[in-house]
Automatic annotation (TrEMBL):
InterPro entries: Formyl_trans_C, Formyl_trans_C_sf, Formyl_transferase-like_C_sf. The gene is Aldh1l2. One of its GO terms (molecular function) is catalytic activity. Residues 29-130 form the Formyl transferase C-terminal domain. It holds the Pfam family Formyl_trans_C. CDD domains: FDH_Hydrolase_C. This is AL1L2 dehydrogenase.
Length: 151
């Protein structure tokens, strides 16, 4: 009750919070979220997870910024996959059926499930080398008649 009265009377002491020991981190910016490749796999995983969803941990692949989402530590033998050169990484990543495998400086692996390009397009990392082939839908005569009836 005394504290409430001090506040109401404008007489409550004001003690500024010291900066030392503060745990609050300001809003992260995209330019500060670039992945530093000279660290163990666990640190890479934590960096990607810590920046997932905003602002998104990123690296340069084929000259463009690619953002990594959905990482997990991979404790298995090195899977089969197609190599992908990543700027700054000491070892190329591997595009596998489960996603993009990246390597820490300790030789351990991290699996990244999704990648987002600068234009905002997000794909499963396992589809990095897939082409954007689209096939036209062809209807049978019966389906064409049904479509006409529905219209």
């Amino acid at each position: 009750v005394e504290a409430v009265h001090l506040i109401a009377d404008g007489k409550a002491p004001r003690i500024p919070q010291p900066k030392e020991g503060a745990t609050y981190e300001g809003i992260q910016k995209k330019e500060n979220a670039e992945i530093s490749w000279d660290q163990p796999a666990a640190a890479l995983h934590n960096w990607i997870r810590g920046h997932d969803k905003v602002p998104g941990a990123w690296a340069t692949i084929d000259g463009q910024v690619v953002t990594f989402y959905g990482s997990s530590l991979l404790d298995a033998s090195v899977p089969a996959g197609q190599e992908l050169a990543i700027k700054g990484a000491s070892r190329p990543g591997l595009v596998t059926k489960n996603g993009l495998v990246i390597f820490g400086n300790d030789g351990k692996m991290v699996l990244v499930r999704n990648l987002q390009f600068e234009d905002g397009k997000m794909i499963p990392a396992s589809k990095y080398f897939s082409t954007d082939e689209t096939t036209a839908l062809e209807l049978t005569e019966e389906e064409k008649k049904m479509a006409e009836d529905i219209r």
